[in-house]
Amino acid sequence: MSADEQVKFLPGMATPIRQLIIRGCSLASQRPLIAPSSLPKHSHSLVERSSFRTSSMTSTSNQADIGKMKLESDGSFKRAASAFRNWIQKDGEFAAEKDRYHLYVSYACPWATRTLITRKLKGLEDIIPVTVVSPHMGENGWPFASVDPYPGADVDPLFNSQHVKDLYYTADPNYAGRFTVPVLWDKKKNTVVNNESSEIIRIFNTAFNDILPPGKASIDIYPEAYRQDIDSINAWVYDTVNNGVYKAGFAGSQDAYEKAVYPLFDSLDRLEKLLTGRDYLVGDKLTEADIRLFVTIIRFDPVYVGHFKCNLRTIRNGYPALHLWMRKLYWNNDAFKSTTNFQHIKVHYYWSQTKVNPTRVVAVGPTPDIEPL
Ligand SMILES: N[C@@H](CCC(=O)N[C@@H](CS)C(=O)NCC(=O)O)C(=O)O
Predict the structure, then answer these.
(1) Is there a contact between 323 and 257 (Cβ–Cβ < 8 Å)?
(2) Ligand 1 contacts CB of residue 303 (under 6 A)
(3) Annotation-wise, does 196 bind a ligand?
(4) Tens digits of residue pLDDT in 297-318
(5) Which residues are catalytic?
(6) Which residue puts its alpha carbon closest to atom 11 of ligand 1?
(7) How many other β-carbons are positioned within 10 Å of the β-carbon of residue 249?
(8) Comparison of pLDDT for 360 and 59, the residue scoring more
(9) What is the pLDDT of residue 41?
(10) Does the CB atom of residue 192 touch ligand 1 within 6 A?
């Protein structure tokens, strides 16, 4: 429970009256509520929990606003770990069922786009519906279309939430982490199953195979035989490329910036060698290593070169093999093309990250967003 919300136990009452103290004024809710401490986590009824807190009630802008995010003392950016790490399993607590789970994403977010690509590759569109937020991530975090009707954004079909942060508080009123996408939601337990994209794509890879047609069930982006190679590429690609662009872009000192940007380009050079004459990073088929790299490379020229100062080279002019690999995935496989929305990508970074770009002016180039094959 935050400092803004308190549950009051009045003398002689079997159940407490919930009292919301909102910026100095107090509103007593007459609806009885079971003491939260006597319940297992996530066990409040949906209606009670979703009314616990709404976007307009409390100020969480230090938690929700990327512009107010604190850096380390040396000016470097450290990404916080994701909080919800449950797994969907055949006979587990979170069973693999149709019409039980819902995916919340932003087209702008590379981590969320990993999950969108995998959902599409595996043919999970009917099993796991998706809701897209507006790219304007502001002081309350990611808004739904009910608050910001941006083209391509959706309203929240489950709760009509205003912001993604409302979902997090519905799952856990004491949530103190960041309000990130993607969010994989469980409609049965009314909670977040998992908000870590690297795990969500592995869940999607296998968990629903029993209820998918054989052609989709047999698609395996993390095959046993290649796991060691995939894991080892993922490790340095994550640190220096996927997260490396953020470390360069969010750096608050010259030293922190240079410590990120040079290793980033060293890794791009290494990837260029790996991909020369090859269509895929590992073996001769598409794996999660390609998916995880693609979402960063597709954003590179449109956003990271300018906005994040990753400008030693561009992909289109500096890396012919990476450029070809990216264009083949995009133009030849609809799972990549249909989940890439350059408008959401560009508007989000340039508009939302006001520490990096206080004017919110969105750069017009490069044109085209992606070159033809
Ligand atoms: N570890 C998470 C990271 C997700 C993430 O950082 N998402 C960003 C958008 S690209 C976000 O929602 N940030 C909101 C915030 O940090 O307040 C994952 O891979 O799923």
Answers:
(1) no
(2) no
(3) yes
(4) 999 999 999 999 999 999 999 9
(5) 109, 246
(6) 180
(7) 22
(8) 360
(9) 34
(10) no
Scored b (16 or more CB within 10 A) or e, 274-283 reads bbeeeebbbe
Which of 180, 193, 291 is the best mutation target for the ligand 1 pocket, counting ligand atoms within 8 Å of the beta carbon and taking the most? Answer: 180
Q: Is 85 among the annotated ligand-binding positions?
A: no
Instruction: Report whether 180 belongs to an annotated binding site.
Output: yes
3-state SS, residue 88: strand
Provide the 3-class DSSP secondary structure of residue 199: helix
Q: What is the pLDDT of residue 50?
A: 35
Report which protein residue has its CA nearest ligand 1's atom 9.
Answer: 109
Query: Of the given ranges (46-60, 64-78, 220-234, 308-322), which has the lowest mean pLDDT?
Result: 46-60
In one-letter notation, the amino acid at residue 315 is I
For the record, the structure tokens of 354 come out as 């006001």
Residue 65 confidence (pLDDT): 81
Q: What is the pLDDT of residues 179-226, one digit of tens each?
A: 999 999 999 999 999 999 999 999 999 999 999 999 999 999 999 999
**What angle separates helix 197-206 from helix 110-121, to the nearest 10 degrees?**
0
The Cα–Cα gap between 296 and 307 comes to: 14
**Cα of 57 to ligand 1 centre, how many Å?**
23
Ligand 1 pocket, 83 CB below 6 A? no
Look up residue 302 and give its DSSP letter: I
pLDDT above 70: residue 276 = yes
Task: Give the tens place of pLDDT for each residue, 86-137.
Answer: 999 988 999 999 999 999 999 999 999 999 999 999 999 999 999 999 999 9
E strands in the chain = 5-8, 17-22, 25-32, 101-105, 130-132, 183-186, 191-194
For ligand 1, atom 13: residue with the closest CA: 180
- Residue 107 C-alpha to ligand 1 middle, in angstroms? 12
CATH architecture of the region 61-352:
3-Layer(aba) Sandwich (3.40)
Q: 143 in ligand 1 pocket by Cβ < 6 Å?
A: no
